[in-house]
């Protein structure tokens, strides 16, 4: 009888484990367990793993100059060079400056970033949950990234704040909160300019959901938030602010590139190489725009025409979240593991960069072959 009870308990435990891993109905049970586990893990990382000083002191030096009354962006300079981030960055890290006693109490800031990390996970879990097909075990892959834990709680990069806001913006979009999503997108952009890379897809979704005139109104809202945040700089040294915060001509340091180490430094810093990358990026975007993103609308031109005669009942008719199908998602997680490996190679090598480049091509292929509508 006792053996039978043991077998029954084991069977129930295995069934529960199977449900927690594979049954979408158990999604939030698994997600909650992972969030609790991540909370404990982040505390342990902060307590036992040494903080990695890369940009923190430079951030503190830059915002301390701002807090002392300087409004000329060219004078906001730290050990790593001038401040090259928009106004939102200055405000966020000014707050952290006060909370950390001038940047000295790093441990307190690490715990703040751990909370930001948990919020990011929660938002991303919500994005995944909307598919209602993704099995819970997929969430485990999100939580095992060494690099994510590193940049959130060991390096305190501003990328963390920007991407957390961007994911929150995506969540607001899925919930059809377009004004809110635009405000949050603009806040993300105010932290780091690379958020502009997400704008083409963001703009297409806005247009397909709201039509021409409401899209223009929402884009104006994005611009308005930028102006409000940058006001102290725009009314004093506008050219200095725009030139630094949105400096498109800035050349990335070859030492830190992860993507392009299979080229030599001379090629990497060459203007022609930058132009080729820019043209290639534009070509990929245009290809997706004309051949994938607007297929069910009859193409870009019919969509543009209808956008001028948008009717309220057309809202969200075509604004499904851009996700690949389940089969694509599974194999892409294998690719994501390879990408994680490439980013953890330090210093990056020609081999790691080539592998990363190939992985990105595979992801693009998956997006092309999946349901990009």
TrEMBL record:
Q: Please give the function described in this protein's UniProt entry.
A: Dol-P-Man:Man(5)GlcNAc(2)-PP-Dol alpha-1,3-mannosyltransferase that operates in the biosynthetic pathway of dolichol-linked oligosaccharides, the glycan precursors employed in protein asparagine (N)-glycosylation. The assembly of dolichol-linked oligosaccharides begins on the cytosolic side of the endoplasmic reticulum membrane and finishes in its lumen. The sequential addition of sugars to dolichol pyrophosphate produces dolichol-linked oligosaccharides containing fourteen sugars, including two GlcNAcs, nine mannoses and three glucoses.
Q: What is its EC number?
A: 2.4.1.258
| GO molecular function, a single term | dol-P-Man:Man(5)GlcNAc(2)-PP-Dol alpha-1,3-mannosyltransferase activity
The record's subcellular location field reads: Endoplasmic reticulum membrane
One Pfam family cited in the UniProt record for this chain:
ALG3
> EC class of this enzyme?
transferase
Q: In which pathway does this enzyme or protein participate?
A: Protein modification; protein glycosylation
The record's GO CC annotations read: endoplasmic reticulum membrane
Question: How does the record classify its membrane topology?
Answer: Multi-pass membrane protein
Report the sequence similarity comment from the record.
Belongs to the glycosyltransferase ALG3 family.
Name it: Dol-P-Man:Man(5)GlcNAc(2)-PP-Dol alpha-1,3-mannosyltransferase
Q: Which reaction does it catalyse?
A: an alpha-D-Man-(1->2)-alpha-D-Man-(1->2)-alpha-D-Man-(1->3)-[alpha-D-Man-(1->6)]-beta-D-Man-(1->4)-beta-D-GlcNAc-(1->4)-alpha-D-GlcNAc-diphospho-di-trans,poly-cis-dolichol + a di-trans,poly-cis-dolichyl beta-D-mannosyl phosphate = an alpha-D-Man-(1->2)-alpha-D-Man-(1->2)-alpha-D-Man-(1->3)-[alpha-D-Man-(1->3)-alpha-D-Man-(1->6)]-beta-D-Man-(1->4)-beta-D-GlcNAc-(1->4)-alpha-D-GlcNAc-diphospho-di-trans,poly-cis-dolichol + a di-trans,poly-cis-dolichyl phosphate + H(+)
> What are the protein's UniProt keywords?
Endoplasmic reticulum, Glycosyltransferase, Membrane, Transferase, Transmembrane, Transmembrane helix
Matching entries from InterPro entries are given as:
Glycosyltransferase_ALG3
| Transmembrane stretches, start-end | 26-46, 83-99, 111-128, 156-174, 186-207, 216-234, 268-290
